[in-house]
Amino acid sequence: MTTYGIIMLNNVEDEEVCGMHKVILSIDSFKGTMTSKQACCAGRDAVLSVFPHCTCICVPIADGGEGTLEVFESILGGEYRTISVVAPDFTNIQASYLILPSGTAVIEMAKASGLPLVEDHKNAGEMTSFGTGELILHAIENGCKYVILGLGGSATNDGG
Question: Which of 96, 118, 115 is nearest to 107 (CA)?
Fold first, then answer.
């Protein structure tokens, strides 16, 4: 017997598995290794390798950390804006945010103040979230009246 997720298989054909013909994959990112979209695609490939006649629907998700912009953009569309901001370790980096078709800005703290930006020295007490504030300010100065702020994946604990 082989285990695939929650389905136990014992020499059965894919058509025999509870009449399953459609699989919805909704997987969050794996911190530092795969985005939500990549994880969904890997899951889809795994399902189809075992059940080639299934229809797989990929629905990426995010918890406000890494991958949040990608999820919003894949569902609602929008336009990315990239600006120079202060990274958590006080260096300058390029960070992006998304403007939805409605004009609302979506800002992912991890893009300007995230853990992957400071791999060499992860002391949260010595980091800043100033760059996230720069993204918010840029969005407002460029006409966004509403901001959705995803707070996951931060390298800081400075309270903003």
Answer: 96
Tokens found for residue 59: 């629905």
The pTM of the full predicted model, rounded to 2 decimals, is: 0.77
Number of domains forming the structure of the chain = 2
User: 46 and 96: one domain?
Assistant: no
Residues 20 and 79 in one domain: no
Residue range of the domain that includes 9: 2-58
Structural domain includes residue 63: no
Same domain, 53 and 75: no
Q: What is the pLDDT along the chain (160 residues), one digit of tens a residue?
A: 333 443 444 444 544 555 668 999 999 888 777 888 899 999 999 999 999 989 999 998 998 888 899 999 988 999 999 999 999 999 999 999 999 999 999 999 999 998 888 877 778 788 999 999 999 999 999 999 999 999 988 888 866 5
Listing from the earlier edge strand, what are the strands of the sheet with 79-86?
Answer: 79-86, 92-99, 105-108, 147-150
